[in-house]
Amino acid sequence: DEALRRLGDSGRCEVASSKAACEALHEAGEEASVEAVAAVLGLRRHCWGFSQSADAVDAACHALKALLQPDRAALLEALQHGSAFCGSVKRHLGKHDGQALMKLGKPRV
């Protein structure tokens, strides 16, 4: 239900129907919608809209799909253990193939 709350003109939260909430988010646009949902959910991080980086996300997905499963697992393990993002990507994907992931950056990957 928290995700369906919206800030009214009076500055107080109102519970909206799911249809009204969807319409309001659609009218506000992607960037405003992403920020509103993040605020309602209490996220203290910046959230990115998908459409502004769709090509970069597709390129990163393609680069990761090209990795063999053992290499993919090794990259994930390195990142989970706090290894440097760019260094890990270069080590497991190579400088050229890792460019797509590095372009997105650690927070979005």
Question: How would you describe this structure to a colleague?
Answer:
- With 109 residues, the chain is mainly alpha-helical.
- It is 57% helix and 6% strand.
- The chain is built from six helices and two strands.
- The chain has helices spanning 18-28, 30-40, 54-66, 69-80, 85-93, 99-104; strands at residues 5-7, 13-15.
- The radius of gyration is 19 Å and the shape is elongated.
Write a brief structural summary:
With 109 residues, the chain is mainly α.
Q: Keyphrases for this structure?
A:
109 residues; mainly alpha; two-stranded antiparallel sheet; disordered N terminus
Topology record:
Blueprint (H helix, E strand, L loop, with lengths): L4 E3 L5 E3 L2 H11 L1 H11 L13 H13 L2 H12 L4 H9 L5 H6 L5
Antiparallel strand pairs: 1-2
Helix pairs in contact: 4-5
Radius of gyration: 19 Å
Share of residues in strands: 5-15%
Average pLDDT for all residues: 76
Share in helix: 55-70%
Task: Return the structural class.
Answer: mainly alpha
Oligomer: single chain
Distance between the termini: 28 Å
- Coarse shape: elongated
Spatial strand order of the main sheet: 1-2
- The residue ranges in which pLDDT falls below 50 over 5 or more consecutive positions are 1-13
Total number of helices: 6
What string gives the helices and strands in order?
EEHHHHHH
Number of strands: 2
Q: What profile does the largest beta sheet have?
A: 2 strands, antiparallel
